């Protein structure tokens, strides 16, 4: 049986492909490499380069991969400010791509999908920690495109029996412990890799946006989960569906909030670098605090994250950064 990973050349997808292979699964990857890296894909996975909008391409892949037990779907755009400027790009790639994929799954009789959703589907939280049953009212087109995808899968489940698990991630960070794969986004918009760019001397300093939030030190508080722990949750979710359980949605986070200043301090300790930083005004649309209630994933999926210390998460990202200062470019990729 084969697991097809869409977006398997991206940051989270490549770590999930790697974990699947380590655990003995047969894996095929679909990716158009728009933000992903061919060199990030474990060589034991079969690789198909193409776009999930391309129905003829998907048919070709699913005609070759005839024994698919499920798909894991990471293929999407995910930069919030870009989605505000160009919402149709997001609805087209994310939501539109999902429709083509589900039609192909329906026609090739593939009945399980694990889907990368996001905390951005909740919008400004009404309570902390955020529960799966809380209202989903996105405040940007990226979150809205992902919420639409959750709804489309729900109706496809009712009509065609395609079972799904929607995994709503909070902040994802870190890299495989041996430093062989890691995060390489262009542009980089996530806090930890940006801090590490400062530590490596690629940026002059860090800007901390907003120091007057109602939090412990006035800076934004976020919940960080290690990418390998996140990858493992996808495999548990697939096994959950294979065991005959019904469709479901789970938050994936560490349930512990760290302020931006705490992350900065942890990064200074983890890297031994001074990491200059300055205070800057708030950015529009940044919620004060985002922390997941992730007890449901722990209880129902049996998820046990291995990394509970944010400094250890940062150390793995720093190891990747030091061994690959130019990311996958170090392997000759443009
Ligand atoms: N990184 C985070 O902190 C975070 C948080 C919440 C949710 N997510 C979600 O997780 C998923 C993966 O995130 P990531 O950080 O690994 O992103 P990424 O950009 O590194 O990976 C996405 C992958 O999908 C591929 N792709 C995009 N559109 C495609 C298409 N139309 N056809 C084929 N391939 C396509 C890209 O080339 C890339 O390899 C995204 O869907 C994102 O919304 C990420």
TrEMBL record:
Pathway: Carbohydrate metabolism; galactose metabolism. It is an enzyme of class 5 (isomerase). Residues 3-253 form the NAD-dependent epimerase/dehydratase domain. Its EC number is 5.1.3.2. It catalyses: UDP-alpha-D-glucose = UDP-alpha-D-galactose. GO terms for biological process: galactose catabolic process via UDP-galactose, Leloir pathway. NCBIfam families: galE. This is UDP-glucose 4-epimerase. It comes from Secundilactobacillus mixtipabuli. The gene is galE.
